[in-house]
Amino acid sequence: MVKDQRGRKVGGGERNFLIGFSCNYAAAFKLITTALLLLLICTCAVFLQFLPTYFSPFSCSTTTSAETTTASPPPPPPPPKDQILENGAIKRWFNPYGSGAYNFILMSAYRGGPNTFSIIGLSSKPFQVYARPTYTCQYENSNNNNDSSSIVKAYKILPDWGFGRVYTVVVINCTFPNNIANHPSATSRLILHAPSNDGATDSIVALTEPPNSWSPSNFISPPKYDYLYCGSPLYGNLSPQRMREWIAYHVRLFGTKSHFVIFDSGGIHPEVLEVLRPWMELGYVTLEDVREQERFDGYYHNQFLLVNDCLHRYRFDAKWMFFFDVDEYIYLPPKLTLRSVTDSLQEFTQFTIEQVPMSNKLCLNEDAGKTSKKWVIEKLVYRNVKKVARKDRKYAVQPRNVFATGVHLSKNFEGESAHYHTTEKLIKYFHYHGTIATRLDTCQQFLNESSTTIGDETPFVMDTNMRLIAPIVKKFELDTIGTILQSTKQ
Ligand SMILES: *[C@@H]1O[C@H](CO)[C@@H](O)[C@H](O)[C@H]1NC(C)=O
Ligand SMILES: *[C@@H]1O[C@H](CO)[C@@H](O)[C@H](O)[C@H]1NC(C)=O
Ligand SMILES: *[C@@H]1O[C@H](CO)[C@@H](O)[C@H](O)[C@H]1NC(C)=O
After folding, report:
1. Could you tell me which CATH number the domain at 222-481 has?
2. Nearest-CA residue for atom 13 of ligand 2
């Protein structure tokens, strides 16, 4: 301590120490011994070569405190050693660290009637495929201090069977006996009992209902919207101009009793938001930020998860629900309206819509030099007519009869699905693949011919059905939201 005070008084450092050393060997020896001791205690031995510079207990105490603040969690116990068992076998061990995927990730739960609920989430795909867990649902009800609870076996749907990645989508249908869950005045909780890999069970509160938060009429009254669009997750550097064209086109087509649910998985950057905003302000668009789902590796930014959430969230709000992408445009032949088409398909729970694949490169000679200002449906007029075994499809459903949904169709519903030959003359969708996630004008080749064959013998024919609608959509946009989007960027 003496040395310490002395060192501090004179300012410490190498020079003073050396002076002290030459004046008094004994003192210096003591000094060095103490210093070494301190250094050893403080495990500063590594700095021994810098003895003079580090001659100060401060360096040690700082080191010590730094050590305690950055202390990492204790290492896991060493794996047990192999041992010889009584029967002569060598006992081997398996030592797990961390976990590859969650057993269940809850996205949402919705009441789907007086006695039924759906729970939507993700689950480890190998766990679902190989362990095939089954779930139970518990409904807890507290009504005038009369508590009751009921447990049922859940009905599990895996709507993306075959498509999942690390995670697969699980839709859990909890349906209780008739007199159990049907008291709106009760405070209630829906609990999902989800088995996990190691034999344990997680009890997850999926839904809490305050008193009178629902009414039986919710499930039988006429829906608010005729048509509701459930989008796919949007990500990447999307073109604001393409989004502008798509939303104007479909608001016009779907009409005033329609609504659009758009999922932002990172694609709704500020310029795209600007394009959606006027339609959000008019109440046509709901934007949901689902960027968080990127943490969980599922098929196509968890598209199956989001469409199932959309189905159940808006199930009683719309007569028809449509599922397609923002590079796809629903097309009805002249003289037909969406209402006349859906009315004629009323008896079906689902109808599929056939794709019309369009070239994203071939444009008209007369448009050359002007295409950057033209809308996609205007300038891309060559239809791919190559024969394929099966054309891609998108679809629409009457959601009240649907329990889970997919990307190209639903397989979990009550009722009939219209066959393709019923709908082919009524409704189609034009697909402009690869036009939405690029900020460039995709026109690359300019033609006059009414038909052509490109590259690997893919035949194209001119199709101006959509081109003819473009001016009507532009006028609709102008009449509805004014000039606010006129200078939107590609
Ligand atoms: C659950 O399944 C039953 C039977 O298929 C169905 O009646 C009910 O509507 C479904 N519930 C939900 C919330 O989808
Ligand atoms: C409590 O609830 C049960 C089941 O819902 C019912 O049968 C019973 O009559 C209720 N008791 C009272 C005191 O309300
Ligand atoms: C297309 O027609 C224009 C006149 O409209 C003509 O100038 C041009 O040469 C033609 N191009 C081709 C590739 O036939």
Report:
1. 3.90.550
2. 146
Mean pLDDT by 10 residues, the chain (490 residues): 35 36 44 48 39 36 40 71 91 85 96 97 95 96 82 96 91 93 91 90 96 95 98 96 98 98 97 98 98 95 96 98 98 96 97 96 96 96 93 95 93 92 93 94 94 89 97 98 94
Q: How far apart are CA 364 and CA 379, in angstroms?
A: 7
Q: Strand 328-331 vs strand 428-431: parallel, antiparallel, or unpaired? A: antiparallel
Delimit the domains of the chain by residue range: 2-61, 105-216, 222-481
Could you tell me if 229 and 249 are in contact, meaning their C-beta atoms sit under 8 angstroms apart?
no
**445 touches ligand 3 (CB under 6 Å):** no
Angle CA 469–475–480, to nearest 5: 125
Amino acid identity of 186? A
Ligand 1, CB within 6 Å, residue ranges: 112-113, 116-118, 155, 173, 175, 403
- Centre of ligand 2 from the C-alpha of residue 147, in Å: 8
Q: Is 363 in contact with 432 (CB distance < 8 Å)?
A: no
Closest CA to 100 of 78, 125, 75, 80: 125
Give nearest CA residue, ligand 1 atom 11.
116
Map residue 82 onto helix, strand or coil. coil
Beta carbons of 441 and 371 less than 8 angstroms apart: yes
Q: Residues 6 or more apart from 170 whose CB is under 8 A from it?
A: 104, 119, 120, 121, 122, 123, 128, 156, 157, 158
State the CB neighbour count (10 A cutoff) for residue 22. 8
CB 331, CB 423: distance < 8 Å = no
Q: What's the CATH fold of domain 105-216?
A: Immunoglobulin-like (2.60.40)
Distance CA 469, CA 376 (A): 11
Atom of ligand 1 nearest to the CA of 118: 13
- The confidence score (pLDDT) of residue 72 equals 66
Enter the tokens of residue 390: 């099966």
CB contact burial 189-212 (16+ within 10 A = b; e otherwise): ebbbebbbbeeeeeebebbebeee
> DSSP labels for 383-403?
EE----SS--EEEEE-GGGEE
Q: Which residue, 412, 409, 398, is CA-closest to 315?
A: 398
Which ligand has the shortest distance to the CA of 313? 1
pTM of the model: 0.82
- What's the token pair of residue 152? 């049922």
39: Cβ–Cβ under 8 A, 6 or more apart, which residues?
Answer: 45, 47, 48, 51, 54, 60
